[in-house]
């Protein structure tokens, strides 16, 4: 079991940021992720105990 707070959030490893098209009227918009980040605890639990590795 992962003992990580729900306050720590991240995107899954396969998530790729996207850059919205620039309209040319103001500063270019920053890149964003299409989906909201999830709690790290939920990401770890989703991959299962065989894929999870301890972090030193």
Topology record:
Layout: E1 9-10, E2 38-39, H1 40-47
Antiparallel strand pairs: 1-2
User: What percent of residues are in strands?
Assistant: 5-15%
Q: What does the average pLDDT come to? A: 81
> What is the strand arrangement across the widest sheet?
1-2
Number of helices: 1
Could you explain how this protein is built, in words?
- The protein is low in regular secondary structure and 56 residues long.
- It contains one helix and two strands; from the N terminus they run E-E-H.
- The protein has one helix spanning 40-47; strands at 9-10, 38-39.
- Strands 1-2 form a two-stranded antiparallel sheet.
- The longest helix has 8 residues, at 40-47.
Give a summary of the structure in a few sentences.
This protein has one helix spanning 40-47; strands at residues 9-10, 38-39.
Question: Which labels suit this protein?
Answer:
56 residues, little secondary structure, 1 helix, 2 strands
């Amino acid at each position: 079991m992962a003992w990580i707070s729900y306050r720590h959030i991240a995107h899954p490893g396969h998530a790729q940021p996207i850059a919205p098209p620039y309209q040319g009227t103001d500063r270019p918009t920053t890149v964003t992720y299409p989906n909201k980040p999830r709690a790290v605890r939920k990401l770890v639990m989703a991959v299962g105990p065989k894929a999870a590795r301890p972090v030193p």
